[in-house]
Amino acid sequence: MNNDVYICYDERDKEVSEAIYNIFEENNIDAWIKSKDMSSKDSVDKIINVIEDSKCFVLIYSKNSMDTNYIVTETDIAFSRNIPILVFNIDGSKIGRNLEFILETQTILYSFPNPKRQLETLVKNASNIAGKPLDDVKIGSRYLKVFGKINPNKKEDTFKKFIKIAIPIVVVLILVYFFVIIPTGQHTTEDGVFAMNITDVDVSDSGNNYKYTVHGQSYNSPADSVNYIMNIKFLDKNDKLLFEINSTADEFKSGVIGSCELDNNNVDHVDFKLTDLNGKVFSQDKYIIEKEK
Description:
Blueprint: E1 3-8, H1 14-26, E2 31-32, H2 34-37, H3 45-52, E3 54-61, H4 69-80, E4 85-89, H5 97-103, E5 107-110, H6 115-129, H7 141-148, H8 158-164, H9 167-184, E6 195-205, E7 210-219, E8 228-235, E9 241-248, E10 256-262, E11 269-276, E12 281-288
Parallel strand pairs: 1-2, 1-3, 3-4, 4-5
Antiparallel strand pairs: 6-7, 7-10, 8-9, 8-11, 11-12
């Protein structure tokens, strides 16, 4: 039996993984998960067969799954079979060394800061890969409660943060505001003006699919770049959303903002937006893809 999605997870993340499984099922996405679909009588070979027969591989990533042997093995099977991989990072843990090479070019999503929006993006991306595109995603409130327990971005008390700021830094920020921010109209972080823009979008034909790699550059990236969100939308000429990526700004590596793989070459332009966790926009860009005539 072919499945739309195979869910890979560590047993300690069972509650979150089953919530994601239920969300897929309620949106008519056929998902497979060990806790529900595998019995003690089944052999390990069944897992290999199910992964090979799935259209999309979803890895629920956390500190629990970091470098876990069977997580690495299952992910490697999907990678070697050219099955699209979506990583859903639920606690902000950095990718372990054993998975770093495999996941370097894969789509990585985060369950925070807005679990509902991030889950919608996960389901839409998986549905596009499975050939069942969705405009609206249903997510029950009972599932969102599960993610409320694991949000890693708990903010410090505002007063405590203010106390930690030294007077010289305040003076520098005031000077930056009056001599840089006001004249240019840009927003700022505590480290200065933070901005990103697209420099190029590379489109490569990989057989049955087209891979889109978005290159960019950043200015004055702050030390806490994990607290800033990059939103990338791949749109056709009618502004129809074909794929969307939400990831933290610390995923910006080697000049690559993000990448995706689609079964068509319909992307006309890419919209990019950089925000903080509160939705404040620091920079945005639109890149039109020039196609050969």
